[in-house]
Amino acid sequence: MGNAKAFLTINRKEAGYRPIHERIADFSEVEQTLNLEDRMQQASRCMECGVAFCHWSCPLSNLIPEWQDLLYKGKWFEAYRVLNTTNNFPEFTGRVCPALCEKSCVLNMQHQPLTIRENEAAVAEHAFLGGFVKARPPKVRTGRKVAVVGSGPAGLAAADILNRKGHRVTVYEKDEAIGGLLRLGIPDFKLSKEIIDRRLKFLEAEGIIFKTGIEVGKNLSAGELLSSFDAVCLTTGAGVPRDLPVEGRDLKGIHFALDFLKQQNRIVAGQTIQASGLISAKGKKVLVIGGGDTGSDCVGTSIRQKAASVTQIEILPQPPVAENPDTPWPYYPNILKTSSSHEEGVLRRWSLASKRFIGTKGKLTGVEVVEVEWTKDESGRFAMKETGKQEVIPADLVLLSMGFTQPVHEGLLDDLGVKYDARGNVAAVKPNESSTAKVFVAGDVTTGASLVVRAMDSGRKAAEAIGRFLDI
Asked: By CB count within 10 A, which of 279, 338, 411, 443 is most buried?
């Protein structure tokens, strides 16, 4: 512990965001950075606890106290080396992770947790800018071939680990570019796609083969896949969005959130979208249904598209501010989360259920909602009841952001004959192993929709399972 009193004398200092009037005019990353001295000071606040709850809560089991100490001492490259032993892509998680580690930091008991996520991003950037990150192809090849289907965080993490083991890895992606939801689901103002491209250059130089525009199960059959590779890792995600099948669902102006976000990411990348298929918030009254991170991304994107107004509704009640006795430290707190997009101008409302879509001449004009209240039954389970208080929220554009139900079964998964669990995800009959011989699973396709950091952890574990299988 380099500075034993830093947590007492130095307060938490965040880099913060670019000014609102500036950032809503473009899709550049909103988060700013601290200078090196400030960043090292923030790292010095780590208490190096005997029981490191930050390490306990991190899905990747990052060695957080160890690399914080190295950062504090100015040993940036050494800090990256330690971080990279457990985290393949800290430049991604340092930008988009909800920082479960910070919520369990002992200093969070006083609402002054260590700036672990920002420190992580800073270490990664310093390593890239300093030339410390280099392509390191494996010296020996095993002769085994592995296919990774899907190039999101789980797929990339699995491919990276498998390639390091010396296996020949081919990653298949149905879309036009590598990255999965990192590429098309997360807005550029949270994760610049240059960050993904920078990493991909190293992965390609290390020998990973990337094939885009190939939908396995359609352009390449399941049989061909199995016959061409010694093992297959499915990382296709949870691709079926939760719908809202109420009256008026067929009106024009209602779209799934991911369709909206993908389109904008493609526009930022320089693609031209035909006017007939364009989903634009410009000049419209936008209603986002769903209060999670994807809904927040829709808010920020709508504001940048110059929406007339943006409202976000959630069926659940508003979470407590700052503290919630139901989710005490060191658990991840269920409290009100205000993102950078929320700060930019949105009306947020809770405890509202959508009853029907209203429109004229086939076009959406509003959504009828009803207030609900939540109670707990004797077993502690929540129950919802409508209060009868109804209203119509005017809307020209509705974005459905209510999560995902399961992976797409039709095509590849059904053709492979894998078993599904009760929720429709691909069942792991053994850790990261499906019911079909030599077919492994990682990420949302088997866990259900979750976090980037959990997907990466799942991808790493799948790679280890495949490694053991190929060594038999």
From this structure: 443
For residue 464, what are its two tokens? 């280890």
Please give the pLDDT value at position 379. Answer: 83
pTM of the predicted protein model: 0.96
Query: Do residues 404 and 424 touch, judged by C-beta distance below 8 A?
Result: no
Q: What percent of the chain has pLDDT over 70?
A: 100
pLDDT tens, 104-124? 999 999 999 999 999 999 999
The token pair that represents 54 in the structure block: 């930050």
Q: Residue with structure tokens 């259920």?
A: 353
pLDDT of residue 111: 94
Domain hosting 172: range is 145-239+405-471
Let me know if residue 1 belongs to a domain.
Answer: no
Instruction: Give CA–CA dist 252/247, Å, rounded.
Output: 13
* Domain annotation covers residue 195: yes
In which element (H, E) is residue 366 found? strand 363-376
Q: Looking up tokens 């429109």, which residue turns up?
A: 359
Tokens of 419: 């078993």
308: phi then psi, degrees, rounded to nearest 5:
-70, -40
CATH of the domain at 155: 3.50.50.60
